Amino acid sequence: MADGPAIEQLLAGRGVRPVVNAVGTWTMYGAAPASAEAAEATTWSLGRSFVMAELQAAASTVIARATGAEAGCVTACSASGVALAIAACITGADPALVRRLPDTSGLSADVVMLKSHVIDFGADVRQMARLAGAHVVEAGPATHCGRNELEAAFTPQTAAVLYVVSHLCVQRGQPSLADVVDAAHARGVPVVVDAAAEYDLEGFHRAGVDLVVHSAHKFLVGPTAGLVAGRAALIEAVRAQDRGIGRPMKVGKEGIVGLIAALERWRALDLDGQRQRDRAKLARAAERLGNLPGLVTELEPDTTGNPTDRLRVHVDPTAAGLDAAALGAALREGPTAFVVRDHLADLGYVLIDPRNLDEAAMDLLTDRIAAVTTAARKR
Fold it and tell me: Using omega within 30 degrees of 0 as the cis cutoff, is the peptide bond preceding 307 cis?
C-alpha cells in the first residue's frame, strides 16, 4: 500500500485538492479528521480477523456505558443507522419480516415526523425511513406545530416517530422532545432520534427515547460509522437487519473497532477546555477580520446546544466588494479549497467553525479571506 506522501501525490495528480476545513464536520468535506486514538485502532483492526458478532457485543457494552442505554450497536454511518432503526421498529427481530423489507404490505409502517424536521442533510432524511419501506406522515406546518397536530398524525399503522435534532431544523414553535415521547409512548409507539452531530450521549436516553443515532465521524472524531443506542430488544432488531436491508450497508471491523476507541477517548475528553481553546482561535480570527472593510464578526454558540461556538462573519457587499455567497464560492477556488459554512449566505453571513483548524490553519483562512475581499474591492 502507498504511504502517505505517495498517495497524496497520486491524488493531487488526479485533481484532489487539500482543504482548509472551517465548516466543521460536514460529510461533503470528509467530516472530522480521525483522532490519533481512533486512527491507530482502525489501522490495527485492518490487519486482523474477528468474529463480527463478538465485536458488536463488545461495542454494545462500551456504548451502553457511554450513553446509559441498555445496549447499542455500530452501523455503517448515522444515515444507515436511522434506516435500520426504523426497520427495527417495523419488523422487530422476526427473521421472516426482516427478509420482507422494504415490502411492508400488511405491516404497520407509518413513521411520524414533525414537518419542521424534514431536512436535507445531503439527502432527504425521509428517504432513510423509506429505505425500510416506511410511509412518512408529516405533522403540522413547518413553522409551528402544536401537540394536538402531532397527535393527529398517529394512526393504528404508526410504527415509530422519527425526531431530528439538527441546526437545519426549525428551532422554535415545535413540540418539545418530552411532549413527543409522551405522546408516542401513550400509544405504544417507539421514538427514534437522529442526533448525528449532537454531543449529548446520555440526555436523550434519560428523556425516555427508545433509539438514538449518532455519527462516529463527527464530534467523536472516529472512522466513518454510526452509533445506535437504546432499548435492548430494539437493538437486537437493528442487528437483525443484517440479514435483510442492512446487508448492503454493513459496517466493517474497522468501523466497530475505531468507534470503540473513539468512545473511550470521548469519556476522558475535557470539553470545557476544548471549547476555551477554540474560542481563543475564533477571537484571533475576529481580531484579524475586524480590520477588513465590510466584515463584522460575532461569536455564535451552537444552535442545538452543543458545547462549541462559531464565528459569524457578516458581509456588507458594498464595502467588502462581494456578498457572502460570493465570498464562500471564492474561498473554495484555487489550489487549496478554503471552506466555510455558507449555507445561510442569503442572510448575509458565513460561519467559521474552529474544530478542524489549528492556529496556523486559522491564520491561513483569515489571510485568504483578506486576499479575496481585497481583490473584490479592486474589481
Answer: no
